[in-house]
Write a structure and sequence with these properties.
This protein is of the alpha/beta class. The chain has 17 helices and twelve strands. Bound molecules: NADPH dihydro-nicotinamide-adenine-dinucleotide phosphate (NDP). NADPH dihydro-nicotinamide-adenine-dinucleotide phosphate binds next to helix 9.
Length: about 450
């Protein structure tokens, strides 16, 4: 990046946010691709759009005390970053994982602004979470944590203000407990959270949406470049919500998924992953993925996460967590003939890994476009709650499919318009940014 104005804004971001490398990485990546836009649009510079965009509207940090099953008081830290509401109420998930701190929530909130913009739905960007680890906790402990978390968060959210959702560690169980507490505290039934259970306002196909949407986007990207899922070998990291439904849809589109993982290690099944077995282990029994090999003798289990990228494949779908593919892993993928990486997780590729993709002519579907199907369907859940009606699975899936096709088309056309054809990362950043920037400019300096 050479633009002096952008470099100086980035410098301020670095100074103001010390010790938050993930946030700085996310801002740098976006800025690097926005340079041609900023050079063409002095009006956006005059309106201070970049300076305002990198500073969240507000950052809420709070204590979350709860009592464990032994009667001992535990204290976690809760976060909600309401990042930007230029185009709609704040919207973004809640991550429950021991690695959570301000820098993670801030990077996720920043990315969410552009992702939500790409969906074409009226949603601003936000993110929240806590360093609480639901793993190994009893249902009662998770419930007490969620109730305590919501007993503070409820003051800051509302169906037309900020609508949180799930993310790593926050699935239907956690959303249910949080929703129950919100309702009790406010006495109001409203679509305040998305990812709710079907009996109480959830949308059909929300559970599947991020994984399905990832495959719909990837399918468009492949087709536009003369490739297809049909007959392709696919590696998927993770075995959570996104990974499971990406595996299901990729298989339905004719691919063979041969590997999946969790935070301890990965399984490789050359016969194709038996998804029912993975779902049973991870969703029902809440056990480790290594259990898979006990019932699948042709499969192998390997400790550690990064080795999964050394398995030869045509398409890689990282669906676990940030920075899970580094330069070395990207080089292993390229060497083994992988021709497409499409991101289900948020920021799973390091900047060096992305350089390797481009240097090797691989197709690259960036997270903020490729995994936007989750939040898009959350937007559809909000619409259904407001309308007081429920659409069928097929209706929601069809709308999701249409949205993902449009997102790919927007990325493709912005990449061409700004002279970077095939660079869908640049296309996603530019298309997502322009809508928010126009809204911020129109609304004045607020
Ligand atoms: P889940 O909690 O359901 O699953 C996460 C999966 O990733 C688990 O298999 C987990 O393993 C694994 N994992 C977590 N941390 C690490 C780590 N440090 N190293 C290796 N593996 C890890 O989360 P989701 O599937 O919902 O989310 C996955 C990614 O997708 C995240 O980046 C999230 O932000 C992103 N995303 C999710 C959306 C959604 O709708 N759910 C929407 C858009 C993006 P283990 O079981 O051992 O914990």
């Amino acid at each position: 990046m050479k633009n002096e104005y952008m470099l100086s804004v980035l410098e301020t971001v670095k100074k103001r946010n010390p010790g938050e490398p993930e946030f700085i990485q996310a801002v740098t990546e976006v800025f690097e691709t926005l340079e041609p836009v900023i050079e063409k649009r002095p009006d956006l510079v005059k309106a201070g759009v970049l300076e305002r965009l990198v500073e969240p509207d507000r950052q809420i940090v709070f204590r979350v005390p709860w009592v464990d099953d032994n009667g001992k008081v535990q204290v976690n830290r809760g976060f909600r970053i309401q990042y930007n509401d230029a185009i709609g109420p704040y919207k973004g998930g809640i991550r429950l994982h021991p690695s959570v701190y301000m820098g993670i929530i801030k990077f996720l909130g920043f990315e969410q602004i552009f992702k939500n913009s790409l969906t074409t739905l009226p949603m601003g960007g936000a993110k929240g979470g806590s360093d609480f680890d639901p793993k190994g906790k009893s249902d009662n402990e998770v419930m007490r944590f969620c109730q305590s978390f919501m007993s503070e968060l409820y003051k800051h959210i509302g169906k037309d203000i900020d609508v949180p959702a799930g993310d790593i560690g926050t699935g239907a169980r956690e959303i249910g407990y949080m929703f129950g507490m919100y309702k009790k505290l406010t006495g109001e039934w409203s679509g305040i959270l998305t990812g709710k259970g079907i009996p109480y306002g959830g949308s059909l196909a929300r559970t599947e949406a991020t994984g399905y949407g990832l495959c719909y986007f990837t399918d468009e990207m492949l087709k536009a470049n003369g490739k297809s899922f049909e007959g392709a070998t696919v590696v998927i990291s993770g075995s959570g919500n996104v990974a499971i439904y990406a595996c299901q849809k990729a298989t339905a589109l004719g691919a063979k998924v041969v590997a999946m993982s969790d935070s301890n290690g990965y399984i490789h099944d050359p016969d194709g992953i038996d998804l029912a077995a993975v779902k049973q282990i991870k969703e029902v029994e809440r056990k480790r993925i290594k259990e898979y090999v006990a019932t699948h003798p042709n499969a192998t289990y390997t400790e550690g996460c990064s080795g999964i990228w050394t398995i030869p494949c045509d398409i890689a779908l990282p669906c676990a967590t940030q920075n899970e593919i580094n330069k070395e892993s990207a080089e292993a993928l390229a060497k083994n003939g992988c021709y497409a990486v499409s991101e289900g997780a948020n920021m799973p590729s390091t900047p060096e890994a992305i350089e390797v993709y481009f240097a090797n002519g691989m197709l690259y579907g960036p997270a903020k476009a490729a995994n936007a199907g989750g939040v898009a369907t959350s937007g559809l859940e909000m619409s259904q709650n407001s309308l007081r009606l429920s659409w069928s699975f097929e209706e929601v899936d069809e709308k999701l499919h249409g949205i993902m096709k449009n997102i790919f088309a927007a990325c493709d056309s912005a990449s061409k318009e700004y002279g970077m054809p095939g660079n869908y990362m640049a296309g996603a950043n530019i298309a997502g940014f322009l809508k928010v920037a126009e809204a911020m400019k129109a609304q004045g300096c607020v």
